[in-house]
Amino acid sequence: MLKSYHSSIASESPKIINPRATPSEWLSLDLGAGELAAMTLALENPTRIVLLDDMLARRTAQAAGLSVWGTLKILLEAKAQRLTDKIEPHVDQLSDRGMWISAEVRRRILALAGEAST
Length: 118
Known about the structure:
Structural class: mainly alpha
Low-confidence stretches: 1-5
Order of helices and strands: HHHEHEHHH
Number of helices: 7
Mean pLDDT: 87
Shape: globular
Strand content: 5-15%
Strand order of the largest sheet: 1-2
Oligomer: single chain
Number of domains: 2
Distance between the termini: 29 Å
């Protein structure tokens, strides 16, 4: 799946698209402007995947029927598409730079990638 997005991205010029209207019930939630915009754009483009790591944003988007991926899913897809040999160094780098990843999530994601946790 990532490869098809990669080839279409490479052939298109980036464009800025502003969402039309954010669902009013989302405005009362403790979500950032970027999360709200990404989720609203995903509602307007239901064949797209929205990238969210914040748990409240993910749950809200999933409840709205959106396809949601997180950063760790992107790493798994990159490995599946042979864009990287190992995801463990990337997971460690994310953690070192402030992304909270529990020991259990780290263990599970590395197991899904076929990598032993060190």
